[in-house]
């Protein structure tokens, strides 16, 4: 369980990071989304993984740490809002600047010339 | 007056919601609410400073959940000072905006209030996760304010700013997660008391978490490898927003001061002063880069943006020195630089409006309609920001230079003074181009009292800070002493600390 969880989080982070470093806005947005999924998973496990634990109800017995669950909910909400915003921003940038490069200038031109 | 501490957050929140009521129209009423709420915030700030000035650490437990379990707002001298500073800066910016800048897009005043809410919340919170939440609140508002009015350069700067800050937020959450995993708490005071008895095998985790936080705060404060977003963003933002952004880098500085003095203070044993060496060297490098940037800037707004960077480097150097004397000097300099750079952003807008097509670019243009007054204000701001006597910049820098000890002097003195020289050269070149190298008929319209008020309100801080240097530096010294002894804060929040973990 632990290793599966750790590998999933790691792979998500790596993919997110790679995509965030791309030059066009769409991969960057997808990358940021993956990064926020990875962070949410990481936050969820931050108090240590509890398997087969119930939610905290009576306060007695074996239960999962409730704090990360509350934090993850907050982080998910904020992450959703941010993703929506960045998608709109990317579309505005595409229509105002005329291309979808994060720097606002198209590099295809130079590449074709250098060939 | 028990609820005074929560007012800096609730007041802008409510004002922002009221302002949402109508998206278009109702301009007069909106301006009244926006300015009224900001003016009230100044009064609240004064009351908070008065209360914190006695040295007592007060906290406000939201929903009456006692720390360390509930969410708390903590008021000490530092947070009270920052809240007052924010309100004073915001009042100048919001009055300036009432002259038409607020009508270039929708919901300016509402977003402005929410930005204030986020900033005040970040200054007051005593909880690491809530620091993240308030960072997000202020960032979300700042994204929208940056794009206020639209335009190509703003959108381009906005894409970089938003993407960088989203990545920073992800890193912030990871750091908070690591620290929670290692210590089992998010309350900063509680975390500090638990670090004292940290098992040795977790020290590595805490170090990693603490330094990741430094990266996040460094991004907000614009420390050297992480500052490249700042000049373009600040130069592209609408003037009143850019003026308010002058406090945003200081939020990063505040967070570094707060987290590393409280959590990683002397009591943290081997983890104490984790950040100091990093901050010290990076601050000097930031100063050098900012000095070069100031000289290279070909636009007045870009020039002021690089001056913000100079101030960031200077402030970080104060943190890097670490002694209470240096912290006191940096707090004095922080008040000065926030208000003056904010005022200079507003002034740059006025100069640009009066020069017709040339705008704020440093090229030959038309003479200014009210050039005399503007030149006088520019002179005042330039003398102050470059750190020449007799204004507050010189005083702040002298305090910082005097606080350097031993080997630190060897590095700080030449770099800080040379950066000041760079600023002086660039500003005198800019001033002579703007006001003297002109031809043709005067362009632009006469300016209204609102714009004059915004600029004068902020720039007047400089002579005032000199006149009131005694009481202000007494307050900053007391603040630095309070920061150097975090145990008092921990005891106030957790009366039973030291017992069961």
UniProtKB/TrEMBL annotation, chain A:
Keywords: Cell membrane, Membrane, Transmembrane, Transmembrane helix. The lineage of its organism: Bacteria, Pseudomonadati, Pseudomonadota, Gammaproteobacteria, Oceanospirillales. It comes from Billgrantia antri. The keyword Cell membrane applies. It is a multi-pass membrane protein. The chain crosses the membrane at residues 6-21, 28-50, 70-91. It is found in: Cell membrane. Its main location: membrane. This is Na+/H+ antiporter subunit C. Belongs to the CPA3 antiporters (TC 2.A.63) subunit C family.
From TrEMBL, chain B:
This is Monovalent cation/H+ antiporter subunit D. The chain crosses the membrane at residues 69-97, 128-147, 159-183, 203-230, 237-257, 277-296, 303-324, 330-351, 372-391, 411-431, 452-472. InterPro entries: CPA3_Na-H_Antiporter_D (IPR050586), NADH_UbQ_OxRdtase (IPR003918), ND/Mrp_TM (IPR001750). PANTHER family: NA(+)_H(+) ANTIPORTER SUBUNIT D1, NADH DEHYDROGENASE. Residues 126-417 form the NADH:quinone oxidoreductase/Mrp antiporter transmembrane domain. It is a multi-pass membrane protein. It comes from the Bacteria. Keywords: Cell membrane, Membrane, Transmembrane, Transmembrane helix. It is found in: Cell membrane; Membrane. Belongs to the CPA3 antiporters (TC 2.A.63) subunit D family. Its main location: membrane.
């Amino acid at each position: 369980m632990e290793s599966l969880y750790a590998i999933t989080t790691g792979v998500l982070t790596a993919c997110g990071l790679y995509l965030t470093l791309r030059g066009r806005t769409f991969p960057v947005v997808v990358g940021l989304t993956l990064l926020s999924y990875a962070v949410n998973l990481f936050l969820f496990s931050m108090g240590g993984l509890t398997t087969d634990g119930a939610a905290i109800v009576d306060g007695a017995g074996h239960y999962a740490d409730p704090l990360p669950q509350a934090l993850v909910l907050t982080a998910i909400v904020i992450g959703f809002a941010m993703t929506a915003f960045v998608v709109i921003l990317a579309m505005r940038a595409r229509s105002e600047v005329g291309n979808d490069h994060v720097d606002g200038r198209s590099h295809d031109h130079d590449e074709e010339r250098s060939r | 007056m028990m609820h005074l501490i929560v007012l800096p957050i609730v007041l802008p929140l409510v004002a922002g919601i009221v302002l949402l009521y109508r998206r278009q129209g109702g301009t007069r009423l909106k301006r009244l609410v926006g300015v009224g709420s900001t003016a009230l915030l100044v009064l609240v700030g004064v009351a908070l400073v008065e209360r914190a000035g006695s040295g007592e650490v007060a906290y406000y437990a939201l929903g009456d959940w006692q720390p360390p379990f509930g969410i708390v707002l903590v008021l000490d001298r530092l947070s009270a000072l920052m809240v007052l500073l924010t309100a004073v800066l915001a009042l100048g910016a919001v009055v300036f905006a009432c002259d038409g800048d607020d009508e270039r897009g929708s919901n300016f005043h509402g977003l402005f209030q929410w930005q204030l809410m986020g900033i005040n919340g970040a200054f007051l919170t005593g909880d690491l996760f809530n620091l993240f939440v308030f960072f997000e609140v202020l960032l979300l508002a700042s994204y929208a304010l940056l794009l206020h009015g639209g335009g190509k350069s703003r959108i381009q700067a906005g894409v970089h700013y938003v993407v960088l800050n989203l990545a920073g937020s992800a890193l912030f959450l990871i750091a908070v997660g690591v620290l929670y995993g290692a210590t089992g708490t998010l309350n900063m005071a509680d975390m500090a008391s638990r670090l004292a008895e940290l098992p040795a095998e977790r020290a590595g985790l805490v170090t990693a978490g603490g330094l990741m936080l430094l990266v996040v705060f460094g991004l907000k404060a614009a420390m050297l490898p992480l500052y490249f977003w700042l000049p373009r963003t600040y130069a592209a933002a609408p003037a009143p927003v850019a003026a308010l952004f002058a406090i945003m880098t200081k939020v990063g500085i505040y967070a570094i001061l707060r987290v590393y003095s409280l959590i990683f203070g002397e009591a943290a044993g081997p983890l104490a002063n984790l950040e100091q060496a990093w901050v010290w060297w990076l601050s000097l490098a930031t100063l050098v880069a900012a000095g070069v940037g100031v000289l290279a800037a070909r636009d007045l707004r870009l020039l002021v943006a690089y001056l913000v960077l100079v101030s960031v480097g200077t402030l970080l150097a104060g943190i890097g020195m670490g002694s209470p004397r240096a912290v006191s000097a940096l707090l004095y300099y922080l008040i000065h630089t926030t208000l003056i750079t904010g005022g200079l952003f507003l002034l740059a807008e006025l100069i640009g409006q009066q020069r017709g097509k040339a705008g704020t670019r440093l090229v030959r243009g038309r003479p200014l309609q009210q050039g005399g007054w503007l030149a006088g204000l520019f002179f005042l701001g330039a003398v102050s920001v470059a750190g020449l006597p007799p204004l507050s910049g010189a005083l702040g820098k002298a305090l910082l230079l005097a606080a350097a000890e031993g080997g630190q002097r060897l590095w700080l003195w030449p770099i800080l003074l040379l950066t000041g020289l760079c600023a002086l050269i660039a500003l005198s070149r800019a001033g002579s181009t703007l006001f003297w190298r002109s031809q043709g008929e005067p362009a632009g319209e006469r300016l209204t009292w609102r714009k004059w008020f915004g600029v004068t309100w902020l720039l007047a801080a400089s002579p005032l800070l000199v006149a009131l240097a005694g009481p202000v530096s007494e307050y900053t010294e007391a603040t630095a002493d309070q920061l150097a002894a975090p145990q008092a804060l921990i005891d106030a929040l957790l009366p039973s600390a030291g017992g069961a973990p």
